[in-house]
Amino acid sequence: MNLTLHVWRQPGPTANGGLERYEARDISPDMSFLEMLDVVNEGLVESGQMPIAFDHDCREGICGSCGMMIDGVAHGPMQGTATCQLHMRSFADGASIYIEPWRSRAFPVIKDLVVNRGALDRIIAAGGFISAPTGSAQDANTLPVPKQSAEDAMDAAACIGCGACVAACPNGSASLFTAAKISHLGFLPQGQPERSRRASRMVAQMDTEGFGHCTLYGECQDACPKDISIDMIARMNRDYLVASLTTRDEKSAAGTG
Amino acid sequence: MELRSKSPSGPLEKKWDKHRFEMKLVNPANKRKYTVIVVGSGLAGGAAAATLSELGYNVKCFCFQDSPRRAHSIAAQGGINAAKNYQNDGDSIYRLFYDTIKGGDFRARESNVYRLAQISVNIIDQCVAQGVPFAREYGGLLANRSFGGAQVSRTFYARGQTGQQLLLGAYQALEKEIAKGGVTMYPRTEMLDLVVVGGRARGIVVRDMVSGTIETHLADDVVLGTGGYGNVFYLSTNAKGSNATAIWRAYKRGAAFANPCFTQIHPTCIPVSGEHQSKLTLMSESLRNDGRVWVPKRREDCGKRPQDIPEGDRDYYLERKYPSFGNLSPRDIASRAAKEVCDEGRGVGPGGRGVYLDFGDAIKRVGKDRIAERYGNLFEMYERITDENPYEVPMRIYPAVHYTMGGLWVDYNLMSTIPGLHVIGEANFSDHGANRLGASALMQGLADGYFIIPATIGDYLGSNKLEPVSPDSAEVKATEQAVRERTTKLLAAQGSRTVASFHRELGKTMWEYCGMARDAAGLRKALEIIPKLREEFWNDVRVPGTGAELNQSLEHAGRVADFFELAELMCLDALQREESCGGHFRMEHQTPDGEALRHDDQFAYAAAWEFAGDGKPPILNKEPLVFENVALSQRSYK
After folding, report:
1. Predicted confidence band of residue B150 (pLDDT cuts 50, 70, 90)
2. Residue B623 to residue B258: CA distance in whole angstroms
3. For this structure, is B586 an active site residue?
4. What is the pLDDT of residues A187-244, one digit of tens each?
5. Contact state of B158 with A135 under an 8 Å Cβ cutoff
């Protein structure tokens, strides 16, 4: 296959960026999208240019490092698939492909396609955990967890933190990401004691980080490589509402997004 | 160099308890006076950083990824072992200990392995309390599955994403401690050297991967949880960024490197599809619970579609050769068997390097829905990569480099030969001997991080008086200078070849001569090729850009430079170990029916290599392995 790429190049966080055109020649349909970029990058290095910087690591769709807008769609045309698991057979020979970094105010560009997603870590730090210091646990089977609850929790916990939901959202909201963690822990009995506190703190942090609000476009669940459902956002809103009615000291002034 | 294992005396089952009582403690008010550096944020590093902070230590945690949640532990699929005996099928701590020692082909330290089996039960409790959504039965209790090398069901799992869920548990605990102020996190920061002052590890030199700034962080103790070195082979199931630089730099500062030749080749990976291949994808070993491995009996049939090959013309070679373990034979055995049938010309798929993993019978037996429930995400992943539907046609699989049992030598306290340098998880050599059993890496990483290091670090800090180190001291300045010089040298070569092309060539050499089967002639050849290639690398590599910016080529170049040196040590180690054991198979040493032949009288030791200076041969030190509890036997899975 031969392709024409239009790739966002930006030397640094404060530099101006722009789209550059590259030809990708003799691409095998069995290559992954990132392997196609590897080939282009090797060519760039050989011709004395800087390769295109992009985040990637496991290349198995689980670490959440990779992610780019491909023809305006987060992670490209294949549903439920991270960029590293997208293969070139999804594109037509001769196609032009536009490749850009995640677009969101809360994800500043570091270089080319690499963005800073530290805001997502800070949302987790605000309350996305169960406080169970090492050593304090009881026997694992002391507290039965209904199979359905465990399955629901797992559906939510499948989030890889890639940020595609934010990039796809016209409002740049991190609601699906935040809601997935609130739901994962909220489905489990172990997550109940901190449930309200968790919801109010994580939502407040999401607002602080400059993510937009959720107006239920639903773009996030289409972009999610792990098919996480927008139902999670309804659960987050419910937990947030309960939290704002029942907790005294930790009420957030902000909305749920 | 003296290798003191510090294994406590007394009966096996009392050693850890006794040791815990004998170890020094640091009182809660004093813990906050100590700073501990943790490099790596995977299961071992993440768990250690979070737990040390919970105890009150000041922790600085470093990872090269943009977030601690992305460490490669996340990609572990199948599960985590624990001797809970919830299935009432005869499991016990002693059985898990025995299976692990035997699975490792009697090349691990008894006391460490027994402790691992003891702690396994606490890990499951801890993870459940953190909200890890393990699979459950309808009654709400935890479910288990079987894994290779065991005849009991002791593996806990969260669909095919167990590593992800355990890591998120550790990561969330870590974020909790970051928010509290106990841990300072340094993402996108790579350790490039170890600072040793007065014979003790006292800090690290790092490069900020965004700005390129090189700086030193000082501490009272350094803990490395930086994972394995499988990427020496270029193609492996490791993440692209997984590297050996942290442990290799520590080796060059005086930490012994043990059993570098012990690498694990995982039998069930998706075969290579072409020269462009950048990494290999594992298909969880749990698939062997229901999948049957076969190749055609006759070479002529290899080109046929699998559905056109009748039952009688198929060779279910694992079931044939190992009737009692069958498709659940340990990894080293299953991998070698696959290589053997492919070498005979009976492999399938492009290049004849593949065998079938067939779910046809399982789908007939329990139905497609049950199979989808168990392995749905793995089947999807397979289809995405290969464009073939495994519900209809058998998967094609082939072995690939997956895990490294070797690593920095550590004593019972997980301390290396440099005082104050602890090494945890895959980065150390301790528990898996010459072959790791499935679902035991997660167990070891978390045992080290949650339970062992938080106890043993207190003993080190409590029994040694550490003088403050000045950032301007000669040792610090010299180490920083060495890092700067290496970086400058890599950028200065301005040659004609890309880093990746060198890495690929090194990988091919290692796979050819130091892969699934090794012999003296091949290893000697590799030892000629590698230094030449390394020299060419330093003269002819092209690293574009500068050191003062985000520069992924520069990062890769530094890692490959270290892989070259490590590769040589792996070959040396493989050459000196004139026996076959676990993942180390020397063609010259096999039983009449082609199984690994150990020589316990000569090689029942851990080979701990000591750096003697650039250009000088490393020194081999031996820690004799003493087996007081198990009888050494020829492993049999027949």
Report:
1. confident
2. 9
3. no
4. 999 999 999 999 999 999 999 999 999 999 999 999 999 999 999 999 999 999 999 9
5. no
Query: What are the DSSP calls for A214-235, one per residue?
Result: -----HHHHH-TT---THHHHH
CA distance A236 to A257: 10
Alpha-carbon gap, residue B78 to B161, rounded angstroms: 7
3-state DSSP of B60-88 = EEECCCCCHHHCHHHHCCCCEECCCCCCC
A183 contacts on B by Cβ (under 8 Å) = none
CA distances from B436 to A179, B55, B221 (A): 38, 31, 28
Interface of A with B in 164-223 (CB under 8 A): 184-185, 187-188, 190-191
CA-based nearest residue in chain B for residue A118: B67
Dist CA B48 CA B444 (whole Å) = 12
Chain B's closest residue to A60, CA to CA, is B281
**Which one, of B377, B383, B282, lies nearest residue B335 by Cα?**
B282
Q: In what order do the strands lie in the sheet with A96-100?
A: A18-24, A3-9, A96-100, A69-70, A73-74
Tell me B350's DSSP state: G
DSSP secondary structure letter of residue B476: H
On whether any CB of chain B is under 8 Å from the CB of A14, the answer is no
Cβ contact A154–B54 (<8 Å): no
Q: Is B338 helix (H, G, I), strand (E, B) or coil?
A: helix
Q: Binning pLDDT at 50, 70 and 90, where does residue B278 land?
A: very high
Q: Which residues pair with A3 in a beta bridge?
A: A24
The tokens describing A31, both together, are 């290559």
| B172·A124 Cβ contact <8 A | yes
Q: Supply B97's token pair.
A: 């200990």
Residues in A 67-126 with any Cβ partner in B closer than 8 A? 78, 80-81, 85, 87, 89, 110-111, 114, 116-118, 120-121, 124-126
- What token pair was written down for B621? 């030190």
Predicted pLDDT at B285: 82
Contact indicator for B569, B539 with CB cutoff of 8 Å: no
Contacts of A89 (CB under 8 A, 6+ apart): A29, A30, B387
DSSP B596: B
Burial class (CB in 10 A: 0-12, 13-18, 19+), A175: buried
B452 secondary structure, DSSP code:
I
Q: What is the DSSP string of A66-88?
A: ---EETTEET-SSTT--GGG-BG
Q: How far is B616 from chain A (nearest CA, A)?
A: 34
pLDDT tens track for B530-561: 999 999 999 999 999 999 999 999 999 999 99
Select the residue from B188, B210, B384, B396 to test the A interface by mutation, using most A Cβ atoms within 10 A: B384
Chain B residue with the nearest C-alpha to that of A43: B498
Average pLDDT of every residue of chain B: 96
CA-CA distance, B493 to B551, in Å (whole number)? 16
Q: What is the least distance, in Å, from the CA of B378 to any CA of chain A? A: 11
Which tokens belong to B534?
Answer: 């390394």
Q: In this structure, are residues B359 and B291 in contact, taking their beta carbons and an 8 Å threshold?
A: yes
Establish how many alpha carbons lie within 13 A of residue A102's alpha carbon, considering only the half-sphere containing its beta carbon: 33
Token code pair at residue B521: 């002639």
Q: Give the number of beta-carbon pairs within 8 Å between A and B.
A: 216
Query: What pLDDT, in 10s, does the model give residues B420-463?
Result: 999 999 999 989 999 999 999 999 999 999 999 999 999 999 99
Query: For residues A198 and A185, what is the distance between their CA atoms, to the nearest angstrom?
Result: 9
- pLDDT range class, residue A248, cuts 50, 70, 90: low
Residues B372-383 pLDDT 10s: 988 888 898 899
Which residue is it, tokens 């010309």? B345
Nearest-CA neighbor of A65 among A160, A147, A145, A151?
A160
